[in-house]
Each structure stands twice: as structure tokens, then as C-alpha cells.
Amino acid sequence: MPSAKPNPKSRNHRVPTSVSSFTILPLTLPPLPALKSQPSTPHYLYIQPHDPKLPEPDTERSLFIANVPIDATEGAIRDLFADQLGGGRVERVVFEASVPSYAALNTNQADGTRGERRGKKRKRGVVSEDKVGVVEDAETALPRVWERGLCVSGSSAVVVFVDRASAKGAWVALRAAVKGGEEVVWRGEGGLGEKRYRNHHSLTFPPRATLQKSINAYLTAFTEAEAMRDRLRAKQRAVPDEDGFVTVVRGGRIGPARMEEAQAAKEKAEEKDKKRVAKDDFYRFQTREKKKEREMDLRRKFEEDRKKVQEMRERRGKVVVSGSFESF
Amino acid sequence: MAPPATKRRKLSHSDSSEDEDTAMSGSNNFAGNGSGESEPSSGDEDLMEEHGHYGDEDALGSEGEEGDAIEEDIPVAIKKRKTTGPESVAKLRKGIDDIPQDGVYTAEIYKSNLFKLQVDELLKQVKPRYGKKEVTNAMHALKSIIEQIPNREPQLVHDAEKSLLKSSKISTPFPYPRPPKDAKYKLEYEKPAGINVTGSYVLEIAAKHGDELSIDLVVTMPSSLFQEKDFLNYRYFYKRAYYLACIAAGIKDSKDHKLEIRFESLNGNSLQPILVVRPSKASIDAGGDLSASNFCINILLTPGEKVFSSEKLLPEKNCVRPKGSNDESSSRLVPTPFYNATLQADCSITAYLKVLHAASKQSDAYKDACILGRVWLRQRGFHGHVRKGGFGNFEWAAIMAILLRSSSGTGAPILSAGYSSYQLFKATIQFLATRDLTKIPFAFEAASIPLPKTEGMPYFFDGERSVNLLFKMTAWSYKMLRKEAKNTLKSLADSTFDQFDSTFILKVESPMYRYDSMLELPLTEFEQDTNHEDIRQTLPQICKKLYTTLTRGLGNRITSLSISLPEETGWQVSSSRPFEDRQGRILIGLETDPANSTRLVDHGPAAENKKEAASFRRFWGEKSELRRFKDGSILESLVWSQKDSSGTIVEQIIRHLVQRHFSAKVADSAKFLGDSFNRLITAGGLSGQSGTIPFLSLMTAFSTLEKDIRGLKNLPLQIRHILSADSQLRYSSIDPPFNASAQMKIPASIVVQFEGSGRWPDDLLAIQRTKIAFLLKLAELLSGENAQYITRVGLENTSQPSRNQSFLDIITPSGAAFRLRIHHDREAFLLDHQLKDKLLDGPTREATAHALAAYKRDFLRIPAHTQAMQTLCTRFTALSPAIRLTRKWFASHLLTSHFAPEFIELLVARSFLQPAPWTTPSCATTGFLRTLFWLSRWDWTHSPLIVDLANAESGADSMKADDVAAITTRFEAWRRIDRDLNRVVLFAASNLDPDGTTWTDRARPAKVVARRMTVLAQAAVSVLKDTELGLVAGTTGVVDFQPETLFAGPLSDYSFVLRIARPFTRFGRPKSDAKASNAMFKNLQLQMQSEDRDVETVGYAPVSLFVEELREVYGNTIIWFYDEEGGDVVAGLWNPMVTGKRGWKVRLGTSTVPVVGNSKPSKGNDDGGVDVMINKGGILNEITRLGGDLIEKTEVFDIQK
């Protein structure tokens, strides 16, 4: 393999090796038969030691990679460091944004943290009384429909090494590779193409038993949580707080119709109120005002129409449509 | 309360009229020639484009606005009116126009404010500038030239002709037949008795059309030239022709002329040659300003009034005696109404100018109404020319003028002088639409005059001038006129939608949109009549025969039939009148009735009815056979073939009749075009069946399934509804879903709603789980009931917990596949409730809003829409194929994924429900083309699409103007909120969906894509326009047009293209491969067949999944185009917004290449001057990697760009 930079554009300009505090690592991409006609272009990773605003315990032994390839996986990155960049051992990789976002399956969308925190988070939902949270875990969650996700183009990842030394070693090896212009090759984990979608298709239809089990587990948990909430409410109703007040909470009856009933009652009451008000053509001034209003209305409408026609006139002739996409 | 209509605005020409006085003071009589500039009417290009498709029509534009500006008379009259009207009144009038009061009340006088304002706008734009200097000068010059022409001595016909040819090289334009050699009478020229301007120019009722302005100049021939009996046997016309030739000679010989002259037939009437004078090219070049010199002057001739006895020229008289007979009293003489009327028309040119002028004095709005009439006629292709219907501007103006007057017998006039221009226009249209003048002739001051009854000939007889104004019309052109009038009347009665465009702006005559079928007959094949050397003379007979034969033969299969002939042009003054070009052809346009046009058997008269049966046999020839029918009757009948090879039934009938009544030669050379697009979609033809037939098997499967589900015993809850919610279940998927032999691949969505129950959990997530539980139960019960049902529960939207998460796929024994989802109305309430929570954070709120919109769309709108479309597709037979064709068009241009199918269906439904200016399309092709036409004109930034799907004839719950106003308000609100069109680009509302954004919210399509749609539609329309121009000009044949051209676009428009490997496209579904590979083992093959139903792959579309992932991964970096129905390419377009060079930062949302930037390192950001560019090569590699074996080849078109 040639050790020279495979970038065809290098004739025109030198590719920078670093930007800001990031080192730029070109990755040679595998040649593809379907893409023969194109000169191969490397993919560029921007890497620096992890430096978040709020340091975490793992920060010391982590590297931050921006612009990961879309087919990056934990395994692929582990291999990249193990085989080509100093052999540092990777403990885990946390991706920023993946597609499909099955991170969101079990966490709340509002929660913007990266990584897959499967089954750890309680559905926060909203602080609303009739919300019942069920802690989803491996048992209650719905079966996954994708084997693994993809990374959003241009997103980042945090690589956590087993210890500080590995992280340091990887960082040094990486800088050396960049400086020396060594060729680093990107090897994905495979499993793409039609296989991936066929797999998804069969995962979409989980076995009946698995599904049933998960549903049962979830609904049991849900019933429990509901019972717990009711108990809590009953308690709140019964026990005065330290100031001697009893909190007013909904309860007593269970059923989905409560809110609607309240609303219907409210509407009914409003209707009644309306009927009580005198008819609006009772007094002379009402008739007069109505007439005036109608006239104003007509006048306004006319003005609007006039404006519309004027706009139409102004627009015409301006409508220039050119060939194809150039007109974007 | 309402101010009288007379308070209408005097348009800007009042100033020019003031100036007339100066112009008039001279000896000339060119009214309206004042040097005063009328307001320059800046042409509206868009509008004019619509008007001016056939710019050269103006060449024939003299229109025969006969009439005469009698010396002093009219100018004085105009002056009087101006002076008698005190200035204050004029001011008041002007003032009124500016204050809203006027507008407030116009709704009663006009259709609506909007309509009135648009009419004003239109009038302003089409009125030409009167009184241009060039025109005035030219007319002065012309007049003096004519006045100086010396008299010519009387000479015998042939001597006269010869000497003229010799001296001035002018060929006398004698009408056919040429004067007999032995003619005794002499031809001579004497100074004219008068030269006057006439026609629309002087009456100020002209309208701009193209660039050329045409002015009619009438020369009154001295009565001394004529003898009492000159009206007989063309004698008058010979004298007239000679007189015209003398004028031509005079103009040609005059020294300082800068004019070009040509002969033309006035309105194609060969009896009336006229002289058309144009400024010569040389003079235009010298004069500089080209546009100002763009006019032509038509020199008409009149013998003056009362030269001949009008008694002798009544329609039922004969004025052309057969050879050898001079017996005037003979009653067997055939009437010559056309000849008589032509002569009378020549005599009454002056008289009509008086009438028209009187009308314009009588009613202020008359002139404007005339202009509206002109525009209306022009858009519908009507013209005073005999080949274009024989109903033009003059006929319109004269009819209106006469209807404004009260006839002695009939009492009150039909039009009132107080009407506004719109009212005059509408009432005239109403008169034309409702009164069948062929059955009940209209006679003005002519109660005692007997009118001959000719089949299909309309009579509007003006007794005072003793002319039938409609003498140039044919039976078919009159039918078309009435049809158009009826159509317009209907759309003017529509109070819901603004019909201004369809009344005045849209070009209705375009044959591609107007007719369902077209027939082309080359003139060469018709038998030459031995008596006539020029086929022109026999053409009227041929057309008449064609018309009567075809209308009788086609009966109620067609609703209209029009015949158009090649256009005629003028000829050089030095040559004789040219013969008809034999290369031309007769073009017949047909509008078919979908209910009848595909009938297989025609029933004739009963066998006992000998006389009629004989006539039937004579008409149909060997095709007619005697048949006995179930009810015992024995009838003459016709049976048509249903085979595809023999063409549609209409075509078969036409070919048979042409062969029988003309010749086999004609029939063989006839080219027929009918519903040419339907072959582009599977089973798209309507021959003998309704458009919904291909979907029958799926509908049956659905109703069986519905019955089976309802029949399940142990369901925990009762079922309230089972609704279909899929385009396959509303007859609108491009391909019919399945047939008996193949497994249906895309499951059709259906929605089930259970009865209400208090036992549902009150939590969004728990509801989703409960739904799954229900589905599992349902699957179990269904499979238990009938083991042949294959069921499986699937998951969807797994990353959006508040949306529907599960469905049940059901594959029926017949091979149909359904995807069932559960609708639970509590979801909407919970989502809504969650949205009202003020503490909700942004992303959750967004997700919730999204979920609510999806809920509404999937469970409420789609089922309602499906139901409505089902009804419409059964009501309009052509709707289903038209929708499928339109969806195919979107798909061929890779736009499917950007447009909801429901949106496309709305587009097509609009063409059927609001068909104005045409009538409801009756075949797929017209439905599709009209949809494209509308699409190409749709200004979606400024106007919403509103469709009234309930627009039934009954109008029970159809939309009202208020509903439309409410939708428009909502549309405007959206435009105010989202000025850059980032969220809602197209706004499409219907009575079922007043929100208007259900199908197009969240930039579906994005602005770029919507623009692409418009550009493509415009390209298609321009291709059609070219074809049409070719058709009209006779350069393209009806069958030359390839429908496929509209469905192909160059892939190079995109940045790159992924060619999909064959097995994953619709062209290479693996089925055939599987069979081939197993062919060696019989037992395996059998096994395969039983399992051939390959249910695994139902609903499996790997490429769609791939494109969906690409969309999510690349966000707005790349716009993707893919035909989701198994297209063989996926095209991508780099978003120009992100492809440029940018400064580096961590999150750019796209893969990048670092480059040495020229940007200086800014403070606090020591990026060492590194910029980034999008890494196109890297991204393409990623995409190709992800696609893997799905992609055969990645082609790049603009990597260098």
C-alpha cells in the first residue's frame, strides 16, 4: 500500500494536520466496486483528548472524536485503535447521535445526553397528576427492531479507554501516525446493505411469545405504579400537612372519562350563561351597531380584495421560472 | 341603495376624447385620433401570454366590425356627451371609484369585489392605445392616396382584368366562380363616395391581441356603379372585386407609399376580398419605433345602404340562378342564404356602425362588455372567420346592441341599459346559452319575415338591416358556442370559488386539454369534385357530411364534436387567389361521454319498423345485424369489438363510418388519437369498463376480511368501525394491488376502532402496550377462526413512544395483504392535554405536536379522505386512472417521497370537481393533462389549493364562500408565521380537511422540491403547447406526440445517482429467478408453488428503508429523490446551502474535508486558518458502503462543481 497521502487534491493544497486543538486523522476508505469511477477521498476524523465542560470520572481516559463515519460502531473503533493506532484497549464508545435513535426508545426525548442508557431512566413524562411512570427495563421494553444504529453524518463520539495509559498511548500513536503520514484504513464492521434491512424486517415482527411477555411485564408494572399512585393520593387526601392543610387531589373514581366530563359540564354551564344574556337585536342601538359593523366589514373586505388584486398585478410578470435546479 | 351602474368608472380614455375635438376639426373623420395620450396600458405579460397564443390571428383580425364613421356624426355625438356631462359629474364618477363605498356594493352588480377588480384590471390591460400618431398619419396618407386614384373607364370584364394586370400587375380577386367569358356588363372605377374609419377601433372596443392593432377603413363605392339587378349571379361581387383591385393598383402606383398590401378574404368569406395594408418593413426601419408602427389597416368596401332591395335578399330567396334559367318566380329555386347575407352584410357596414355606436351611447358599460366578450370568445377560439365558427367580436357586439333595444313585438329589451359591464356580459352569455336559435330563431323587427328551416342553422335575424347575424356559423360551431356559454354560465353561478381566471384568462381552445379524442383526415385523400378545381369550394359540403354522419353514428357517446380546418392567409396582390393547400387536413375534436362512449352494443330500430330499419341499414351498411334480445325484441343492432388491437369503440365507429360514407382511402389515412396516456398505467384503459375495475379483487378481499373480523366472537370489546385508509383501497395506487396469481406486496392500511371502554389505561405509553395486546388477541382469534389467515404483529415508530407503535399484518387466503392499526380516541385527548402543559420542554412539545398531527392524519383524515375518494372514483369513471397517471408522473420524476399521495389525489380531484373552464374530464388523459396544466400555473406561494370533495350536484354539504374565506385566512396566517416557507410550502385544504396542512406540513415537500414540481409541470405544458401549435399549424400529426416524453427527465439534473441493483427494483423482483433456479427439481418446484405466496417479503421494501435512513443520517445536506414503487435509481442533490467553504467547528452536521482556509484566525479561535468543505467523495463512499449490495453503481454528475 502506498504510504503517500491518497488525497488527489493534495496537488492543489496541503491538507492541514490539525485544527484548533484537534488532530486531523485521514482515514483511507475501502475501494468499492460500485464507486469505481470516482477517485477515492479519505474520511477525516478530528480527534482530541476529551475535555467536556463538566468533567466526568472517565474524562481522563477518553478521547473525543468529531465527524465519525456513519457506519462507526464500538467494535470498529475498538479495532481501529487496537490494530492501527498503538493498540490501546477501548472500554466503550459513546456515540452522540444515532439513527434510528433507539436511545430514545428508553429515555426521554427531552433528555439530550448522549449514549445508550438503556433501561436506566424512569419515564419522566411531565409532572402531571394523571401520569403514571413505568420504569422500562429489558423485560418491559419493546423488542428492538434494528440490530444496530447508524451515526448521523458529522456527529461525534467519545472513546473511553480501559485506563489513562491506554488513552495517552493511543493519543501519542495517533499524532505520530498523522505526522508520519501513515495510512490508516477504515474498516467497518460490515453487516450493511440488504442484509441490514432484511434483518430489520424480520425484527419488526417479533415472535408472538416475546411480545406477549414484554407486554404483560409492562402492564403489570403499570398497574402496580397506578396502584401506588392511588395509594399516594389517598394518603395525601387523608393526612394533613404540617400547616394542617389537606392537599386536594383527584381520585376516588378511576376511569378515563373524568376530564371530558368536567369539560362537558363547563360547556353546558357556559351555554346556559349565554341563553341568559339578552338577545342582541333587542335594543335599537344593537341593530344600529350591527348594521355599522356589517358595513365596516364589507368595506374591510373590499379593501382586502383590492390589495389582493394589486398584489396579483405586481406579482405577474415577475414569475420567472428557469430551467431546472439552478433556480433554487 | 346601490348606486346605479352608470356610475361606473370611465376608464382612462376620457382625456383622449377631449382631445378629439382638435382632430375632428380637420376634414378627416378618424374618431379617436386625438393626439392626447391615453394612459399607457402596460401589458401584463402573463396575461397576454395566455391571450396571445396565436399571435397571427390578428392578420385576419378585421373581424368585420362593419360600420361606418359617418362624417361628423359620431364625433359630434361623442363631443356632445362629453360636454353635456358637467365636469363635476366626471369628477364625482372618478371619485366614487376611489372610495370603498363603490366596492361595498359592487358585489350585487358584479359577481364579487374580487371579480370586479380583476375585470377592471383586465380591461385596463387589453385596451390598446388609441390615437397613435403613426396610425393617424398612415390613415391620412392612405385616404389621400385613395382619393387621388383616377377613374377608370367602363370595360368588359376580361378587358378590365387584363388591363389592370398589365398596367399595375394587380390580379383582380374575383370570387369563385369566375365571371363568365361572355359577360355583357362592364366594370369601372369611380371616386369613392366616402372613406371612413369603422369597426372596433373607432368604437373603442378594440382589444390588444398580440402586438398588432388592426383598423378597419371602409370605402363606400358610388352607387352609380351598380344596377338594380346586380345582386344576382355574383355581378355585384365581380364589380366589387374590380373596384378593390383598382384601389390596390392606386396604392401600389402611388409614389410616396411606404405600405405593403395584400388581399385577404374578409372572415374567410371568399365573396368578400379585402385589402390589408401594413407599413412596409422599410418604413418601419426608417421610422425606428417598431411597436408603434405595428398595425394594419383593412380596406373594406360597401355599396352603401339601400342600393339593392332587401326583399330580394331575404334568406329564403335565391340569388344565384342556375345556368340557363332566368325564371325568377320559379319556386323550385334553392335559397342561397349565405350569398344573400354576405351581400347584405356588405351593404350594412355603415348601418351597423350606427347601431353599435347608438348602443355605446345608450349604455355606458356597453364598450367594456364588448371587450369582455372579445376576450371570452378569443379564449374559446371563436372568431368571425367562417372556419373558426363564424361568431366573432362583431357578432357579439351587434347581438348585444340589438338585445339592448326593445323590439316592437317583444316588449322589454333583454339587456338593460343600466347594467354593468359584467351584467351585460353575463346576460348575453345567458341568452346564448339558454336560447336555442336553431329551434326558436330570434327575429328583431322581423316578425313577418319567413325564415327557412335549415337543419342546425341558427337565426338571429336583424329585421331592420335584414341580415341574419349568424349566417357564417355552422351547425357544429353553434353547438360549441352554446356549450361554452352554458359552461361559463355555470361557473359564473358558482359563489364559492373565484371563477375569473376560468372565464377570461385561461385558454380554453387548446385541443390537448379540450378534447378527449382527436381525428385527423388529410385533405389529399378526399375525392376531388370534378366541377371545382379548388377543394375549398367542396370543403363546406365535406365538413357538413362529416358532421351529420359522425353525430348520427356516435350518438350519445359524444357530447361535442368540432371540426377545424387549416388556417387561411392572404395573398399577394399580383397573384390570383391561391388554391387550398392540399397538404392540410381536417381536424376533428371529440368530447366523449364516459357513461356511453364505451358501450359495446348499439340498438337500432325494431325489425318490424321497415322504413327506419332500412335507413339504419343504409347508414351502417354490413355492420348492422339483426339480433334477438332477451326481452324478445328483434332489433337492428351493432356490435363493436372489445379487443385492444381494434382501438376504442369510438375509433372503430369513426373508421367504419368514414369508410362507408367517404372512401376506404380516407379511412385508412385517418389518424385517431384518444386517451393516449392510459397505456402508461396497467389496466388504464376505460374500454367497456369503469376505471375502478382493476381494484375489484382487493375491495372484495377487504369486505370479506371486515365480515370475518366482525364475526369474531371472543373479542374483549365490540368493534365500532373498520375503515380503509390506503390509496390501494381508494382506487388510486399506480399499479392495481394484486391479481389472483401474485401475492400483494404492499399491505393496505386499515383502521379499527373499538367501542369505548373505561378499562383502557389513561396513559399514552400504556395505551400503546394495550393496543399490542389487542392486536395479539385479534391475531390469535382470526387465525383460530380461519387457519388460512396469516397474521403477525409488527412494531413501528419505536423511537417515538407517543406515536402508534404497532400494527397487525393480515394476509388473506386470496393473497391480499392488510395492515391493521387500532384507533383509540383517547390518545388525541392525552396528547392535547400534554401540549397544554406549560412546563413542557421544547423537544417533548415538538414530539408531542408531531404525534398529535400524525394521529389526526392517520386515524381521522386518511380514512375520511379514503371514503370520499372511493365515492368520487365511482362517480367519475375517469378519476381513478387520471389519479394513477398523475401519481405515475410524480413517481417518474422521483418525487413520490416528497408528496403525500392524498395531496396528489386532491390535485386530480380538483380537475374533476372544479373543471372550469372545461367540463368534467371523461378520460384519464384529459384529467391528467388538465391537472398538469393547473399545476404549472399554480402560484403556491400566494394561493392555496382548495378542493370541495363534497361538490355533489345536490350540493348538500358542499363548501360555502365563508368556508373558503376561512381557509384562505388560515393560509394567510401560515404565510405570515412562516415567511420563508420552511414548514408549510404547499397548502392544500378540502372540506374534510380545513386545516390545509395535513398532507404538506413539515416541509413535505420542501420549497426546493415544490419548485421542481412546478418547473417540471411547466416543461410538460410547454411540450404540449408546442404540440398544439404544431397541430393548429398542421405540422404535427395527432399521433406524432409521444406521451412518454412527459414522464422522462434527465438524471443529470441531480448531483449523483445510485443505480439500484436489479433484484431490488420492480423490474427484477426475484420471483422469476427463484422459479428458474429450482426448475430442475419437480418436487421442490411444487413446494415452492405452495409457498410461493412468500409472505415473508410482504411489506418489505429494502430500498425505501435505505433511503429513509439516508434521509435521517444526512439531514438537510442532501435532498433525496426516489420512486418508492420500486424505482431503479435513487438520486441525490447536494443542498447548495451546505456545500460551500465554511469555518471549522466541532458540530457541522456533515462529513467534511479540512482545507487551508484564507480566513484569518479569529480571536479566541486558533484554528490555524483551517476551513472545511463538505467531503463529497467521503460521503459518497459512506453511502455506497451503507447501500452495499443494494447499489449496483454510483454515478456522480457534479463532484467537480
TrEMBL record, chain A:
Checking InterPro entries in the record gives:
RRM_Rrp7, RRP7, RRP7_C
Question: Start and end of every Ribosomal RNA-processing protein 7 C-terminal domain?
Answer: 204-316
Instruction: Name its GO BP terms in alphabetical order.
Output: ribosomal small subunit assembly; rRNA processing
Task: Please give the Pfam families that the UniProt record associates with this protein.
Answer: RRM_Rrp7, RRP7
Location of the region described as Disordered in the Swiss-Prot/TrEMBL record:
106-126
Tell me where in this chain the Rrp7 RRM-like N-terminal domain is found: 19-200
| Cellular component aspect of the GO annotation | CURI complex; UTP-C complex
The UniProt similarity line reads:
Belongs to the RRP7 family.
PANTHER family, sorted: RIBOSOMAL RNA PROCESSING PROTEIN 7-RELATED, RIBOSOMAL RNA-PROCESSING PROTEIN 7 HOMOLOG A-RELATED
- The molecule here is called RRM domain-containing protein
Please tell me the species this chain comes from. Answer: Lophium mytilinum
From TrEMBL, chain B:
Gene3D superfamilies assigned to the protein according to its UniProt record, in alphabetical order: 1.10.1410.10, 3.30.70.3030
Region called Disordered, residue ranges: 1-68
Report keywords, A-Z: Nucleus, Ribonucleoprotein, Ribosome biogenesis, RNA-binding, rRNA processing
**Compositional bias ranges of the Low complexity kind:** 25-41
List each copy of the Nrap protein domain by range. 215-362, 365-507, 511-663, 688-874, 876-1028, 1051-1193
Location in or out of the cell:
Nucleus, Nucleolus
Any one Gene Ontology molecular-function term assigned to this protein's record: RNA binding
Question: Which Gene Ontology terms of cellular component type are present?
Answer: CURI complex; small-subunit processome; UTP-C complex
Q: Composition bias, kind Basic residues: at what positions?
A: 1-11
Question: Which ranges are annotated Acidic residues under compositional bias?
Answer: 57-68
Give a yes or no for keyword Zinc in this entry: no
Q: Could you provide one GO biological process annotation from this protein's UniProt record?
A: rRNA processing
Family (UniProt):
Belongs to the NRAP family.
What is this protein identified as?
Answer: U3 small nucleolar RNA-associated protein 22
Q: What is the lineage of its organism?
A: Eukaryota, Fungi, Dikarya, Ascomycota, Pezizomycotina
